[in-house]
Amino acid sequence: MVPEEIYAISHHVHHAKSDQPGDPYNAKGGFLYCFLADVNHQPIAKDLTADEYRRTVQLITHTGIITNSYAAYQKWGSIINPRRAILACLLNWVAWYIIAYLIGGHALACALFGAAAFWAIGVRTFNYEGHGKGKDKRKKGYDLNESDMSINQVWPGIVAGEWHNNHHLYPSSARSGFLKHQIDFAWYYIKLLHLIGGVTTYHDSKPAFLNRYKLKD
Q1: Where in the cell is it found (predicted)?
Q2: What percentage of residues in the chain have a pLDDT greater than 90?
Q3: Among 182, 183, 171, which Cα is nearest to 208's?
Q4: Which residues have C-beta within 8 Å of that of residue 55, sequence separation ≥ 6?
Q5: How does pLDDT run across 96-148, given as a tens digit for each residue?
Q6: pTM
Q7: Rounded-to-10 torsion of CA 12, 15, 16, 21
């Protein structure tokens, strides 16, 4: 489990300070620095002013979580009440376990939860790998964002639609697979949801990308 406030807020910081001191995923800090980010240096600051807390909350309201008041934040040191976060997680796990059990019994439920655990551990390595393990592994003419060490990788790109260098160029874009071979299943899913009314608005920065670098579709 990765609470929304830890991932969403730290993601904004990561983009603002990529590969610089203060980046919670700074690959230059080494493998364990990235792998243990949520434990060592990713939690919300405990000493935000009222205005800083308000601005922080604005970065996460799109997730739909119920946020603490400033007084409650000062008590708990978090944006969401810990009891609510734990309860929501447990109810989520129970609901999905029951659904999987009804479909295929304990075998299917345990297999799905085991796969989720495998993913949860493996995804911790992504930003370390996605920023060249702290070294400049960008390919000229392919990794076009030159402001940080992010790189486009085939495996994360295909399985998660995370063409990371493209994502750093246009972080608000729902699509990050801009070139013909850059398969983007996450984008296909978003487009499908849009067609059936599950998504109302989205940003697609592919036209801006192609125009910026004078590339053909």
Answers
A1: Membrane
A2: 75
A3: 171
A4: none
A5: 999 999 999 999 999 999 999 998 888 888 999 999 999 999 999 999 999 99
A6: 0.86
A7: 110
Residue 99, CA distances (Å) to 42, 104, 106 in order:
33, 9, 11
Q: Which of 168, 150, 176, 161 is nearest to 26 (CA)?
A: 150
CB-based contacts of 43, cutoff 8 Å, min separation 6: 6, 77, 78
Residue with tokens 């260098």: 165
Q: Which amino acid is at 199?
A: V
Per-residue tokens: 199: 């998504």
Cβ atoms of 179 and 157 within 8 Å: the answer is no
pLDDT by 10-residue block (mean), the chain, 217 residues: 82 93 92 88 88 94 89 93 91 96 97 92 90 94 94 92 95 94 95 94 95 87
Q: What residue type is 169 in one-letter code? A: L
